[in-house]
Amino acid sequence: MVKVIVLSGVPGVGKSTIAEKLARKLGAEVVHLSKLVVDNKLYVDYDEVRETYIVDEEKVREKVKELIIECEKEYMVIEGHYGELVPKEYVDFFFVLRLNPLILYERLKKRKWPERKVKENVAAEILAVPTINAISVLGEDKVCEINVTGKEIDDVVNEIFNYIKEGVCPTKQFIDWTILLKYELLEKFLKTLHF
Ligand SMILES: Nc1ncnc2c1ncn2[C@@H]1O[C@H](COP(=O)(O)OP(=O)(O)OP(=O)(O)O)[C@@H](O)[C@H]1O
Ligand SMILES: [Mg+2]
Fold it and tell me: Which residues contact 179 (CB under 8 A, 6 or more apart)?
């Protein structure tokens, strides 16, 4: 049975880049969830305000399950910011890439996105949304955060590769950016949210 590695994280943290390189190093099949959703029309609607597809979660789970069962490679790397949709019984490793919100903000600002969308995604990083979503499905033990801040792409790839080969995740320490950020910065990003 294929070993499934999921890479999750908010937009811009490096999921696609790392997934491609990791897959090459492992000889793995790679699945880009956002491409899979668009190519197979696995969405229910398009959110004009957020400029993003609203995915049909059940259809995504079904399609991913199909690909895993059909996969003939030893490894499959699946990346996307809703990695928790990979059916949990097939997940061997679940990595959430975490990036310092200030660096993420600079990276996302280079995209032609509305400022609001940039800030919402930075807020999601501050609040660890991908980690929380993953833990709520898989539990804490299978979820492993990788801090990519200040690391070269190849170093991140090697770090994840080594964890996979050793069969263990790094020490269980979840990242909390709030203690690093000043109040004004937290407010700048979090006030985009409606509580
Ligand atoms: N460790 C890194 N150091 C410097 N730049 C990086 C690093 N990882 C990725 N990048 C760069 O950041 C940009 C975003 O990376 P990438 O497209 O892989 O992110 P993503 O998480 O897949 O985003 P999205 O969810 O929007 O698809 C790219 O230009 C990539 O080259
Ligand atoms: Mg990507």
Answer: none
Domains in the chain: boundaries: 3-190
Pocket residues for ligand 1 (CB within 6 Å)? 9, 11-17, 81, 107, 148, 151, 153, 156
Which residue, judged by its Cα, is nearest atom 19 of ligand 1? Answer: 14
Structure tokens at 3: 């070993």
pLDDT in tens, 163-176: 999 988 776 789 99
Going by CA atoms, what residue is nearest to atom 15 of ligand 1?
Answer: 14
Helix (H, G, I), strand (E, B) or coil at 19: helix
Domain 3-190, what fold?
Rossmann fold (3.40.50)
Q: What is the pTM of this model?
A: 0.95
Q: Which among 39, 85, 46 is positioned nearest to 62, based on CA atoms? A: 85
CB contact set of 28 (below 8 Å; sequence gap of 6+): 5, 22, 73, 74, 75, 76, 77
Sorted by sequence, the CB contacts under 8 Å of residue 14 that are 6+ apart come out as: 97, 99, 148, 153, 156
